[in-house]
Specification:
143 residues, alpha+beta, 5 helices, 4 strands
Length: 143
């Protein structure tokens, strides 16, 4: 618990960052509910930002806040590439970055595995991710 508080205090440095941190947590909850209640096409419409403001927050802050929330081992906060990608899609596009959302599948040891990821300007947000998946959904559909 103390470790998480220290980590939080190094992440959030200003009141606007605190507000962003709390909003990202709220959107993770909203995404968790939407995943159970609506189709992915409808969800992408809901997640698309109404307006954007170029570069108000650094990309690293958005990624770190999302990772902090999803690093929890509680119900809706469990790590999930799908939740992470959906929330990052929203917030990076709010920053006027050209983020695209992908869902892919592949067979591994006879089982179907899925993964979701984000690209920004055509490059994976997390280059270390194994993206050897067949894309079954992307948003927006084309660059």
């Amino acid at each position: 618990m103390i470790r998480r508080i220290k980590e939080f205090s190094t992440l959030v440095e200003t009141p606007p960052e605190l507000w962003l941190f709390l909003r990202i947590g709220l959107w993770i909850l909203i995404v968790t509910i939407l995943l159970r209640a609506t189709a992915i096409n409808r969800m992408m419409t809901i997640l698309a930002p109404r307006k954007s403001s170029p570069g108000k927050f650094k990309r690293d802050k958005i990624v770190n806040f999302t990772s902090f929330w999803l690093g929890r081992e509680r119900a809706f906060l469990q790590r999930s590439c799908l939740k992470r990608s959906l929330v990052l899609f929203r917030y990076l596009n709010m920053q006027s970055e050209r983020a695209r959302f992908f869902i892919g599948v592949r067979k591994e040891n006879g089982e179907l595995r899925g993964h979701s990821w984000i690209t920004v300007d055509g490059k994976p947000l997390f280059p270390e991710d194994d993206l050897n998946y067949k894309t079954v959904f992307s948003h927006p559909q084309s660059e």
